[in-house]
Amino acid sequence: MPFSSITAESIISLLTEHHLLETDEPLQPDSDLFALGLDSLATMQLMLHLERDVGIAMPASAITRESFATPEKLAALVNSQARAL
To answer: Which CATH number fits domain 8-83: 3.30.390.50, 1.10.1200.10, 3.10.20.740, 3.40.50.300?
Structure first.
């Protein structure tokens, strides 16, 4: 099955569907996830959902505050990891 790019919107959907980030503010592609309350546990849960859904293994070196800062940045990271397969 060919890889279908992950979008910032799909990251936002994962966050809301799995209740990983509860906020009254609507999430946007450039929303600062950590400022809105994303913590380390939710970061790891999000990573696990992404690995399962996309079928990649995220290297520990890629799991940084910067790469998980916004849905847009996280989508770019996931897409680059998936293309590298």
So the answer is: 1.10.1200.10
